[in-house]
Amino acid sequence: MFNFGAKLLSVTAGFRDTAGFSPGERRRFLAEDRKETLRSARLLAVLAMVLVPLFSALDFYSHPELFKQFLILRAVCVLAVSVIIVSLRTKMFHRFYRLYAILIPMIPAICIGGMIFLIGEAGTPYYAGLTLCIVAVGFMFNWTYREALFCSASVMLIYLFSSLPSFSGELSLQSTAAFADNCLFILANGTVVTLGSLSNYRRRIREFKSRQEIRRQKTRLTAQNDELKDTLKELRETERQLIQSDKMASLGQLSAGVIHEIGNPLNFSNQALYVLRKKLQRSGTKEDYAEILSDLQDGFDRMKEIVSELREFSHSSSGANMTFPGEQCVSSALRMLAKEIEDSGVEIELNLNPGVLIAGVKNQITQVVMNLIQNAIQACEETDRKCRILINCEFAGEYHLLSVEDNGPGIHPDNSRKLFDPFFTTKDPGRGTGLGLSICYRIVEAHGGTIEVDSVPGKSSSFSILLPAFTNHRSSDIAFNLQN
User: Fold this and answer.
1) What percent of the chain has pLDDT over 90?
2) What mean pLDDT comes out for the span 206-224?
3) Domain 319-484 has CATH 3.30.565.10
4) In the Cβ-directed half-sphere of 97, how many Cα atoms lie within 13 Å?
């Protein structure tokens, strides 16, 4: 029985267009087809169990003498369909599920054929039930064209066989014409259903191929997205390392100034200690030591402040968001550049509004200010006139303005467009990596601000940082972009 079912399935399934599918795609297609067939089989089986007994009213009025026989046929039909419903849950259905697309319409067709056989009249209108089995079921099931052709031919054979009793006697011209018309209608319906099933089947194959292509593209996009995420993570890590490297490079350039800044308080403190020792030898009064001790404390406090600022500036993880006065960033930058400013002879002018509060990472804003001041100092070395650097920190409408302006040689127009490009530099080899302004741009952008350049070649240059006056950044807005 199972061998016969397998042969019948191979004849009627007709999934030839799936030959080009991969094994996985073919399994997915058959799984979808099985699911759809199961849903349709349940619906049609229920409809058959409802409609077949319901049409017994037609038997009562059309052929009351055959009502009992017809009722038995309808009961057998309902019983057979109920067996089909039960078998939908078995392994047999999953193995031979395509057969159910044929069995369900064939059971009512055989029942109707039995009724026509009992009536013994070839032109009976009961043939309409046979066409209903083809048309209604054919468009509800996902038949292949071969399955539709098989069912249509089977219905035609059922009608021809059930009409045999009517040929036992002489047929009137009217009965012959009715028989011919019925055959023609069954043939026409079968042809329409077969062609419709062929078109529907090809459409299903095209839609499935399109879904698989979309699925493959989605898989590729997911893989590319994961790759881009990994690449972005690596770039952020590289950027974090570059920021830290730029800090350390700046510290290397500041080392002479740091030594000078710490050396002065140390010398001053040593002198104070020497005087204190002399005073102690003379057993002076307590008041004599007060000023000396105060000088010592000032010297040590100054060294402590310098060391603290250097530690904060160089630390790679000092990236917490906070609100701080803008003038603090300027003061810290000037203290760390004190030696370089003194050696260059540049005059520093300050216009700092103590009411300007900046929300962000203090360490990073200090790095930006220090980089701009350092660039201004180095630019001023290229001119013979007395150099001056003006540093502003003030309100500017809806923004806070931090600007560094120098009266150096200015910037050539061809270089203005490339200032913030990574690794672009006009400095001599060994004096710059070309990362300073690029990192400044990234830091200001992460704080929700902008950095602008205004230069008059041969006269001056001005770098202006505009930060939002009402900055309620979340930590992730800055820390994610610059620290992670």
Assistant:
1) 1
2) 85
3) yes
4) 21
